[in-house]
């Protein structure tokens, strides 16, 4: 064997060692978040103030469909407490990736684009869309296509949410779309006449109207489930870092046993969810755009 050959073989062996070490490190990291959460007895979750999916009460308590399911499932996993981290919706994925929290519990829709960035649990619900409009719906805005057909109509959407994509796909020009950080600011914009409609899921819009109360001058337009000839019944799930495979697998195992159970349905009923909102697709289908 020549010195050159020996050097080459040594380099290959060293490279193999580095790859093996990296693989072991990645494997350990994948276990770390689950093990750490069990050891410390709590886990940090990111949420956005969007009722009824995830929000803080006036007393500062984390609640909503997603946080309450997360609490129930995590408890079955041996993680007793959930520490909520309030985050603007559009910053949830970057915050998760940056390690500000270890999962997202915000009712986030599972979409192919988001699946490229993070891993999702199986969905916990499926639901359609609706507009928040002024009382009487003076411009008769029922769908995104109605906004596109009226050059003077303006639409409000929440930063980072799927509704902007739906509007664009339906032909709504960018200059007719305004972005707001959360639901309450969208409500205020409709009341002030800054936008003619504000789009979110039908349950979120219904919650905004209910909390605004009588005399607020707003209402929910008729819910709809089709956009540009395609179903937009969105399915929401819980977000995880892709390397946290053990945490995701364990969460999914308990989630599968929980969703649709009497315990689950009783838990989410106060937030307006019923059997009609049970998921109809898998995460694999949703990530594939099916």
Separate helix tally: 11
Number of strands: 15
Query: What integer is the average pLDDT?
Result: 88
Distance between the termini: 57 Å
Name of the CATH superfamily of the largest domain: Periplasmic binding protein-like II
The main β sheet shows up as:
6 strands, mixed
Strand percentage lies at 15-25%
Q: If you compute it from the alpha carbons, what radius of gyration comes out, rounded to the nearest whole angstrom?
A: 22 Å
Which oligomeric state applies? single chain
In terms of structural class, how would the helical and strand content be classed?
alpha/beta
Taken from the alpha-carbon principal axes, the silhouette is globular
Bin the helical content: 40-55%
| Architecture (CATH level 2) name of the largest domain | 3-Layer(aba) Sandwich
Keyphrases for this structure?
15 strands, 11 helices, D-Maltodextrin-Binding Protein, domain 2, 290 residues, single chain
What does this 3D model show about the protein?
This protein has 290 residues and is α/β, with parallel strands linked by helices. The protein folds into two domains: 148 residues, D-Maltodextrin-Binding Protein, domain 2, CATH 3.40.190.10; 103 residues, 3-Layer(aba) Sandwich (D-Maltodextrin-Binding Protein, domain 2). The chain is 42% helix and 21% strand. The protein has eleven helices and 15 strands. Strands 1, 4, 5, 6, 7 and 15 form a six-stranded mixed β-sheet that branches. A five-stranded mixed β-sheet has the order 10-9-11-8-12, sandwiched between helices. A hairpin with a 5-residue loop joins β2 and β3. α2 packs across α9. The chain is globular and about 55 Å long. It starts with a helix and ends with a helix. The N terminus is likely disordered.
């Amino acid at each position: 064997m020549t010195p050159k050959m020996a050097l080459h073989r040594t380099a290959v062996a060293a490279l193999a060692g580095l790859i093996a070490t990296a693989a072991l490190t990645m494997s350990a990291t994948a276990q770390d978040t689950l093990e750490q959460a069990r050891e410390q007895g709590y886990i940090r979750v990111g949420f956005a103030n969007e009722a009824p999916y995830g929000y803080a009460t006036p007393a500062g308590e984390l609640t909503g469909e997603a946080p309450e399911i997360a609490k129930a499932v995590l408890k079955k996993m041996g993680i007793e407490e959930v520490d909520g981290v309030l985050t603007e919706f559009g910053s949830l994925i970057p915050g998760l990736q940056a390690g500000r929290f270890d999962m997202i519990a915000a009712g986030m829709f599972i979409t192919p684009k988001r699946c490229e960035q993070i891993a999702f649990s199986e969905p916990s619900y499926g639901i359609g869309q609706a507009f928040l409009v002024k009382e009487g719906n003076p411009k008769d805005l029922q769908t995104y296509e109605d906004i596109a057909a009226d050059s003077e109509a303006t639409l409000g959407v929440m930063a980072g949410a799927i509704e902007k994509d739906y509007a664009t796909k339906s032909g709504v020009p960018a200059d007719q779309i305004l972005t707001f950080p959360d639901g309450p600011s969208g409500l205020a914009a409709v009341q002030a006449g800054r936008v003619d409609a504000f789009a979110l899921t039908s349950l979120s819009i219904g919650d905004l109207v209910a909390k605004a109360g009588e005399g607020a001058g707003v209402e929910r337009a008729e819910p709809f489930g089709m956009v540009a000839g395609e179903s937009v019944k969105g399915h929401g799930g819980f977000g995880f870092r892709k390397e946290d495979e053990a945490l995701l697998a364990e969460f999914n195992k308990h989630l599968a046993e929980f969703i649709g159970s009497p315990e689950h349905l009783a838990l989410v009923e106060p937030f307006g969810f019923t059997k009609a909102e049970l998921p109809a697709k898998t995460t694999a289908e949703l990530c594939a755009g099916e």
